[in-house]
Amino acid sequence: MISRKDGLALWEMWLDTSGKRLIQWPIEEINHLRTKSVKLDSCEIKTGAPIVISGITAAQADVEVTFNLPSLEDNPEILEADHVDDATLFDRDSSVGCVYGPFGLLALASHDLSEQTAIFFKVIRRGNGYAVIMGSNEKRSSLRDGVKKSSHGTFVDINPRQEKISLRCLIDHSIIESYAAGGKSVITSRVYPKLAIGEAAKLYVFNDGANGVIMTSLEAWSMRNAEINTNTTY
């Protein structure tokens, strides 16, 4: 097992039971930094109607959310993902091959959404089954001049027919660490918002896809600053 200190996030890494995949997850002690919390009941996230998560400090937060898809068998379109470049697959603004999504969280967002960093999922029909894509879209993350803005992502090794899509995000002012499916896929985003800072930062659940998705659970916590013991050897 490997542990690392990196900003707010302290994480550990290990091989899963198959011995073929690395799992990465925040260490348990991170939970001790949680303070006030908010929960949302199960609800449908409809297209173009983002839901604001209020009651926490969104600039420094820990968020756990789970999504379920109402139906997959009614969407027969097949995407030959090997023939589509990564820039298209991992771009939130592209709906090529999407059965569901993009949907997920808008972190470090301004009240008017002119600034936002989207941590999102897409579900595509692929071969005889479905594939889940996780992405981070930083194209609208900052109104500052000269800030590099991009999209990037990865595939999540789950079967959306049988498993819910889960996401945990640790947000720490300019760093967003996102863990999908219990740490099977991880994305770190470094952003530099101009408006969405401190108390002005907002957090939303969103869905840009043509079909509604079910948010089965959401719990979010404000996070206090970690006290680092500089005498400890890692």
TrEMBL record:
<dbReference type="InterPro" id="IPR013189">
    <property type="entry name" value="Glyco_hydro_32_C"/>
</dbReference>
<dbReference type="InterPro" id="IPR013320">
    <property type="entry name" value="ConA-like_dom_sf"/>
</dbReference>
<dbReference type="Pfam" id="PF08244">
    <property type="entry name" value="Glyco_hydro_32C"/>
</dbReference>
<feature type="domain" description="Glycosyl hydrolase family 32 C-terminal">
    <location>
        <begin position="29"/>
        <end position="222"/>
    </location>
</feature>
<dbReference type="InterPro" id="IPR050551">
    <property type="entry name" value="Fructan_Metab_Enzymes"/>
</dbReference>
<protein>
    <submittedName>
        <fullName>Beta-fructofuranosidase, insoluble isoenzyme CWINV6-like</fullName>
    </submittedName>
</protein>
